[in-house]
Inverse folding.
């Protein structure tokens, strides 16, 4: 075996690095979603995204499901849940950007979220959050009590 005589500072740094690595690979809040997907906040067309998660909220994969127009992205539940089923995901987070920069959920955003929540119950894959991304920050359906 190798040398196992570490200083306290070395041990602390190793623990901090492992903790950071663990956090980066997990989604525990809308802030984590924003950190993962922030590059889409600047896009000039709506991008609808999915993050598939295992049972401990570790990221399996993230994908673009649909690219829409300047102010609209239409998705069907089968397009959202197909990759989740293929990944054998326990949960998902969905997200889309608002090129306009607004951080308010539209009526269409609320409707698709409710529809996907209903489907998530049927297929047994938890919809953990729907996050709207913009250059100004994010809006979380979960944080707002809409999930």
């Amino acid at each position: 075996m190798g040398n196992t005589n570490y200083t306290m500072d070395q041990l602390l740094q190793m623990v901090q690095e492992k903790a950071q690595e663990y956090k980066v690979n997990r989604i525990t809040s809308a802030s984590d979603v924003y950190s993962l997907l922030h590059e889409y906040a600047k896009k000039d067309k709506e991008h609808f995204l999915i993050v598939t998660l295992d049972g401990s909220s570790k990221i399996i994969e993230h994908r673009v499901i649909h690219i829409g127009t300047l102010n609209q992205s239409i998705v069907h539940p089968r397009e959202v849940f197909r990759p989740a089923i293929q990944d054998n995901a326990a949960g998902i987070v969905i997200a889309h950007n608002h090129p306009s920069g607004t951080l308010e959920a539209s009526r269409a955003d609320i409707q698709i979220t409710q529809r996907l929540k209903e489907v998530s119950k049927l297929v047994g894959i938890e919809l953990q959050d729907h996050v709207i991304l913009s250059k100004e920050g994010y809006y979380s359906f979960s944080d707002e009590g809409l999930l």
